[in-house]
């Protein structure tokens, strides 16, 4: 991720502790959704840097209903924010609701939050519509001096919109996660490497590739890493990568085989003189 501007870090350091106190008070009082939205508006302004009056709006209509909040910068909606009361646990139904809001309005980035827990989603406009959880954090436990927490906070900031940070963060998350790593481990090149090393350790004892696969899949990796939609999507991505790499090697090998060796100047001159 690109460097975070110093003034943004200073804002996080100043504002995050303030709202951690505010949110604890609000949680203790179990404030309603309307008051939670009011607090969220202040957070979006003081923590994340949006203009409270010009860029944070509750007037965005989606199919006859209004979303809780939208972050609109330069006449373009950058995030939809689906808010729940601070005392409400975020559930799958809330995620679907937030996703549907974004899909219905053609907005790719959606935030689901009860002010304590924040979940940032990126919608994939495909058939059927799907989405990825890009980032999740609890604001009351964030340390604005910690690099990892800073990256999560910056993802939602006003300044990050100008640096392409969202897409950069998303691409990294898509390529560096437990599902991708699990799929890489289960790929044939990695399994073959493990088999080869096991044979060395066991002094030449026969080790079957399928046996290694079953051990890794069933006893080494967590079940959730190798099963489910995200695991399947990761496996498809890894297989596609290896197919492309293999095709590239074959093409390069073919070109090398058919290309004539470069003729030296000496040989060419002798050939032209009829003395080759």
Mean pLDDT: 82
Q: Give the CATH topology of the largest domain.
A: tt1808, chain A
Secondary-structure element order, as H and E?
Answer: HHEEEEEHEEEHHHHHHHH
Q: How is the largest sheet built, in terms of strand order?
A: 1-4-5-6-7-8
Query: Which CATH top level class of the largest domain fits?
Result: Alpha Beta
Q: Tell me the number of strands.
A: 8
> What's the number of structural domains?
2
- The end-to-end distance, rounded to whole angstroms, is 61 Å
- Structural class based on helices, strands and sheet pairing: alpha+beta
Rg over C-alpha atoms, rounded to the nearest angstrom: 27 Å
Q: Give the number of helices.
A: 11
Q: Judging by the overall fold, what is the CATH architecture of the largest domain?
A: Alpha-Beta Complex
| Low-pLDDT runs | none
Secondary structure layout plus pairing:
Blueprint: H1 6-29, H2 33-46, E1 56-57, E2 61-62, E3 65-66, E4 69-73, E5 76-83, H3 92-105, E6 109-113, E7 117-124, E8 130-138, H4 147-155, H5 165-175, H6 178-185, H7 188-201, H8 209-220, H9 223-226, H10 229-258, H11 265-272
Parallel strand pairs: 5-6
Antiparallel strand pairs: 1-4, 2-3, 4-5, 6-7, 7-8
Helix pairs in contact: 1-2, 6-10
């Amino acid at each position: 991720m690109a460097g975070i501007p110093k003034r943004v870090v200073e804002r996080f350091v100043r504002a995050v502790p303030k709202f951690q106190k505010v949110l604890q008070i609000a949680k203790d009082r179990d404030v309603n959704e309307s008051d939670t939205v009011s607090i969220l508006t202040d957070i979006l302004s003081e923590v994340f840097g949006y203009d409270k009056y010009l860029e944070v709006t509750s007037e965005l209509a989606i199919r006859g209903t209004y979303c809780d909040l939208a972050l609109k910068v330069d006449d373009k909606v950058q995030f939809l924010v689906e808010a729940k009361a601070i005392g409400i646990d975020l559930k799958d139904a809330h995620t679907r609701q937030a996703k549907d809001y974004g899909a219905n309005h053609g907005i790719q980035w959606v935030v689901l939050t009860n002010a304590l827990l924040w979940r940032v989603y990126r919608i994939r406009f495909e058939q059927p519509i799907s989405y990825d959880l890009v980032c999740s954090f609890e604001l009351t436990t964030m340390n604005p001096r910690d690099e990892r927490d800073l990256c999560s906070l910056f993802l939602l900031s006003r300044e990050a919109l100008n640096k392409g940070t969202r897409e950069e963060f998303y691409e990294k998350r898509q390529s560096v996660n437990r599902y991708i790593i699990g799929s890489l481990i289960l790929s044939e090149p990695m399994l073959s490497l493990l088999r080869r090393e096991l044979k060395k350790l066991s002094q030449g004892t026969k080790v079957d590739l399928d046996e290694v696969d079953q051990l890794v899949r069933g006893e080494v990796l967590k079940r959730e890493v190798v099963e489910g939609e995200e695991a399947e999507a990761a496996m498809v991505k890894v297989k596609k990568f290896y197919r492309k790499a293999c095709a590239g090697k074959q093409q390069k090998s073919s070109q090398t085989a058919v290309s004539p060796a470069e003729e030296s100047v000496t040989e060419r001159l002798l050939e032209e003189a009829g003395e080759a």
